[in-house]
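Hello,

Our lab assistant flagged a job as stuck in the queue for most of the afternoon. It eventually completed. Since we weren't sure the result was trustworthy after the delay, we are filing this so someone can double-check. Below is the sequence as submitted and the structure that was eventually returned. Let us know if re-running is recommended.
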Amino acid sequence: MILCLCPNPSVDKFVWLDDFIHGKVNKIKKELAFPGGKGVHVALGLAELGEPCVLLGFWGGDTGKYIKEFCESKGVYCYGPAIDSPNRTCFTFRSKTDLNDTELVECGPFITDDQVYLFWLEFIRLLDKATAVCLSGSWPITPDEIGYPEFIVAAKKKGIKTFVDCSEKYLSAAVKVNPYCIHINNDEGAKVFHENSPLKIASKALEKCELVAVTSGADGLHLANKNHYYIHATCRLSNVISAVGSGDALMAGLIAADRRSYDLFETAKLAVACGAANCIREELGFFYQEDVETLFSEIELATIESRFINQEP
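-- returned structure --
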């Protein structure tokens, strides 16, 4: 099975506003709630693709109960310590103004050292049954700085592939221990690898991993492997409802493709089809197998010779 880590799960809410007036009372017209957190989205995406997976997180309060119950209703069983404080809530605003798609992200609960240790012990136990490990997103507040390097090293010692998708400080630490796969968006790639071109980011990342996926919004995916073979994959969508969670959907596609021993072309198509499928539904961070199957045949692929990368601006 695939072990997905989500240390900082959340309830993600779409909230509709006509406008936002500073210093005034702003009333929400409508809201929808969904389980969230990057690892939660990846696990639910894998389950939708028919891949066996489990989820490891910290679970607290009514929010934690809701997230776990939803995931387990989809066949994703949840493990990890119970905590006193509720899990966070994050908001994505829907509006006809420039507020549209603005996100407001809570930092998450406080986690004690003892709870971190329990999380680690559960990870080690689950690792014995894992065929791949996905490490996604942020950590909640802890007494000491924590990240993913120790988890990656422990998985590598057992010959288990690790897939990483996290922000600048967590990714900077993770790449030092050479995970198998990195997914990064272009903005984060510029911060970590000090390059602006997705091709150059991919080239730098391949010094630290064997497979790298660099996403650039509507410009699609640049996927490259340890042989420095580069593919650019795109999908044209006529109606995008929300792109929130598309990177997590794409990661689910990457992991599923690796499990199925797809070649780099098929991997790019499945990953982009999953990311695109997330964009055409109202649910935050979710996609449906039927949409993936439809979009798979519509993915446009182009190969890029590595000798041209250094000529990129």
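-- support follow-up --
The delay was a queue issue, not a problem with the job. The result is valid. Residues 60 and 85 are 5 Å apart (CA to CA). The first strand starts at residue 2 and ends at 6.
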